[in-house]
């Protein structure tokens, strides 16, 4: 397990999947905002369910987020689109509703940076998030990510086009204990 100050990132357990699906994917608004595609209902127990991990997929690493104190499951975190030539990857993160707003997201981004930069030797990490997602923007910026641009009307979400913000962090600018 990778440890931050409040959360840990561990492998996905089989019994995490239905909880993550019920709390994150089955919430149509949350999933439409976070998943970057059209929401559709997915049968629980399906091998194609969104939080089922394919360990053979080299471009994607999935973690479950747990509270360090007690080990309760609080969300899902991943590095996706891992590009070992250009040495960059994207960060994805979703916390269960009761776990939001407690500093866990900021800590999870810090641990994902440690994994990306130290364990994987990446050079750049990036995050794309909706421009009104204050908690995600702040979680990224507190870890040193900078806003590199606005992708205007790039996301079709529940009946309207929304802007996304692209944030990036280079390993040379990364301060492991950054509090931005
Ligand atoms: C986005 C998310 C991962 C952030 O994690 P979090 O644990 O809620 O965020 P934190 O508690 O670490 O807060 C980070 C900062 O945002 C602020 N913040 C938290 N929730 C906020 C809200 N609803 N509105 C405005 N600011 C908020 C905090 O005050 C904190 O700011 P500070 O560091 O200046 O004090 C989490 O809220 C989440 O999973 N949301 C739903 C899914 C999602 O949006 N995923 C991202 C898709 S790209």
From TrEMBL:
Entry GO terms, CC: cytoplasm
Domain N-acetyltransferase residues, every copy: 15-163
Record has Cell membrane as a keyword: no
Name this polypeptide is given: GNAT family N-acetyltransferase
Protein keywords: Transferase
Lineage summary: Bacteria, Bacillati, Actinomycetota, Actinomycetes, Kitasatosporales
GO MF term set: protein N-terminal-serine acetyltransferase activity; protein-N-terminal-alanine acetyltransferase activity
Pfam families in the cross-refs: Acetyltransf_3
């Amino acid at each position: 397990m990778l440890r931050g100050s409040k959360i840990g990132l561990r492998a996905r357990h089989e019994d995490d999947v239905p909880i993550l699906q019920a709390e994150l994917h089955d919430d149509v608004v949350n999933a439409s905002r976070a998943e970057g595609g059209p929401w559709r209902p997915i049968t629980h127990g399906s091998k194609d369910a969104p939080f089922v991990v394919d360990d053979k997929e080299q471009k994607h690493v999935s973690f479950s987020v747990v509270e360090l104190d007690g080990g309760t499951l609080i969300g899902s975190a991943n590095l996706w689109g891992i590009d070992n030539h250009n040495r960059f990857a994207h960060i994805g993160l979703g916390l269960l509703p009761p776990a939001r707003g407690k500093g866990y997201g900021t800590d999870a981004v810090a641990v994902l940076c440690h994994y990306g930069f130290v364990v994987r030797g990446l050079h750049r990490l990036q995050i794309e998030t909706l421009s009104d997602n204050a908690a995600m923007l702040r979680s990224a910026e507190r870890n040193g990510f900078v806003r590199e641009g606005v992708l205007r009307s790039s996301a079709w979400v529940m009946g309207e086009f929304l802007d996304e913000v692209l944030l990036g962090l280079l390993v040379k600018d990364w301060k492991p204990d950054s509090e931005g």
